[in-house]
Amino acid sequence: MRRLAIAFFYDKDGIIDDYMVTLLGGLRSNVSTIVFVSNGPITTESRSKIVDLVDDILIRENVGFDVWAYKAALEHVGFGKLGQWDEVILLNHTFYGPIYPFSEMFDYMDATSCDFWGMTAHREMTPNPFTGVGVLPMHLNSHFIAVRKKMATSSEFESYWRSMSPIESYTDSILKHESRFTKHFTDLGFSMRVYLNADENWSDYPAFIDVDESLLRRSPILKRRLFFHDPMFLEQNAVDLPRALRIIEETSDYPVEQIWTNILRTSTLGTLITNASLIRVLPDISEGTSDSGLRIAVCAHVYYTEMLDEILSHARHIPHGYDFIATTSSVEKKAEIEERIRSETSIKNAFVLVVKQNRGRDMASLFIDCREFFLDDRYDLVCRLHTKKSPQVFASRGNLFKRHMFDNLLNSQGYVEHLMALFARSPSLGLAIPPLVHISYPTLGHAWFANRPKAQSIAEELELNVTFDEHTPVGAFGTMFWFRPKALRKLFERKWQYDDFNAEPHHVDGGLAHVLERLIPYVAQDAGFRTIVVMCAHQAEHNYAMLEYKHRQLSSHFPNGDFRWQNHMLTLWERSGYAGETVKQAFRRLLYAAGRSATFRYPALARYARPLYQRLASRFHF
User: Fold this and answer.
1) Strand, helix or coil for residue 560
2) Which of 192, 191, 196 is nearest to 207 (CA)?
3) pLDDT of the residue at 575
């Protein structure tokens, strides 16, 4: 078939990442003509990436979402000229692909008789979730719709687009186009087909909710929204994006690194780590892996020299040796460190520095005294450690926090070999951190503490193009972590002064040292590098067991319901100023509980009762 593809694109920064180049390249061998339409300007570099892949580039103002971009492109081509092609394809930038060759899909659909078809579809829903009443009809997902010549050259097709009303919101684009298009044209007598037919027990939105099963059916796309959508929706609907990513890695040659390059620019880091499960529980068993080829350094602040042996014992787990960069607070300690490390056979080169001021603790020593080591690209990977004693808390808490970091970064040689392999095969991996410490520490939901205002101020000074997580930042808590120097270049390029840090012993929230440990992952994200959370097996066991216990205890204070409902009830309580329950609040809670119970226990009855429930919900604002 001769095909015309109208490819819609939007990026707030006008950047076309490589995933879009791959998408257009996969499309190019299956279509005759590609018109690329962007809502907003694109950079000169971006234009150069696609100019040889497309036949026409149309830049328009960012109005009307994808719907008016399609309309503008069709008018640009000319409705009277659409008969030159056997199919007109309308697709957008909201997915990665082709995960599997587009030719599989086109070959299959070429043998299927219809007037228009889609890659995937959304089932009918009652009530319409966007209005709370009526029916959301079954419809093709608008990210990819193919219209054959009979329909494309019809007066009805031209009239549909000529009469399209303004699109002013995402909801408008759903109600006025995506959910309307399929029913509108089938009611006119045009026949429709779907490439990816869902099983009867699949969800209403298979391409999204059943993403892993869709890929097993060789769906050629992976929706971008999966990475930045509300994690509560993914949890409630059992969306298994991590499994989908494993399926891609095992069955496809799609360049997954392109996903990370794109999604890091456009996602909130904590949501991305949650949805894609960027947590790795690494084994301790060595697989006898060869030298990763990475140039490695251990950079340690050794204030308490009596803890140096503990650092060195963990550092010995690094295979093939490392350079050792140490900072300390006095000439006497420097001599002690140099004498102690002289017998360490794992150390290739050693550098011991005395900090100019004992201020800012391990953060000042890293970003002021050690900055020259990490600005000249002499190291591919660095493990940041320090002699953590935490004298401000009981020894049990301080030691638990210390083990939490040492074990999850350097548990054994086999463990470190596996971690090195992750960095070696993934250029976009820039940072590996232990998980948020929560046992005996009140960090869950509150880990910004008093540090967010200053973090935001510094982020603006550094021109970080990132969005902070709302409640709990992704942080290098405890300031021990693995990093690529390139990922933190903005922090090393900035010429920090000792006076920027609190004087000892006033190491407090809101001070620069505590702010930097929360900024580190976001600086890496801004540089285009991914952060992963790493855990060894015994730490994962302890952390998960305690985390599950704490969640059980909190949930036990609610009537039975899912996490989304419990979170909603806490939100209502927070908005009330944590006041005692009023009669209205009690009625609202009971009504919501009844609705949730009916949905789970009597789904057929719930569908009929939902319109009444929606009206009551609107009346009582929940």
Assistant:
1) coil
2) 196
3) 86
Please name the residue that has the structure tokens 């794992």: 346
Q: What is the mean pLDDT of residues 238-260?
A: 98
What is the CATH class of 281-546? alpha beta
Alpha helices in 102-230 (DSSP H): 102-110, 149-152, 155-162, 170-173, 179-187, 206-209, 211-216
CB atoms under 10 Å from CB of 81, counted, come to: 11
pTM of the model: 0.90
- The pLDDT value given to residue 595: 62
| HEC assignment per residue over 365-397 | HHHHHCHHHHCCCCCCEEEEEECCCCCCCCHHH
Name the residue type at position 312: L
What is the torsion angle, in degrees rounded to the nearest 10, for the CA atoms of residue 88, residue 47, residue 104 and residue 254?
A: -150
Closest CA to 56 of 5, 94, 1: 5
Nearest CA to 346 out of 313, 377, 369, 376 is that of 313
Structure tokens at 4: 């015309």
Pairing mode, strands 144-148 and 87-91 = antiparallel
* Among the four given CATH numbers 1.20.1740, 1.20.950, 3.90.550, 3.30.310, the one describing domain 3-275: 3.90.550
96-143 pLDDT, tens per residue? 999 999 999 999 999 999 999 999 999 999 999 999 999 999 999 999
- 3-275 shares its CATH topology with 281-546: yes
pLDDT of residue 451: 95
Domain spans of the chain, in order of start = 3-275, 281-546, 558-620
CB-count burial class (<10 Å; 0-12, 13-18, 19+) for 377: exposed
DSSP H or E segment with residue 364 = helix 361-364
Please determine, for residue 596, whether its predicted confidence score (pLDDT) is greater than 60.
no
**Backbone phi, psi, residue 87, to 5°:** -140, 145
pLDDT number for residue 586: 62
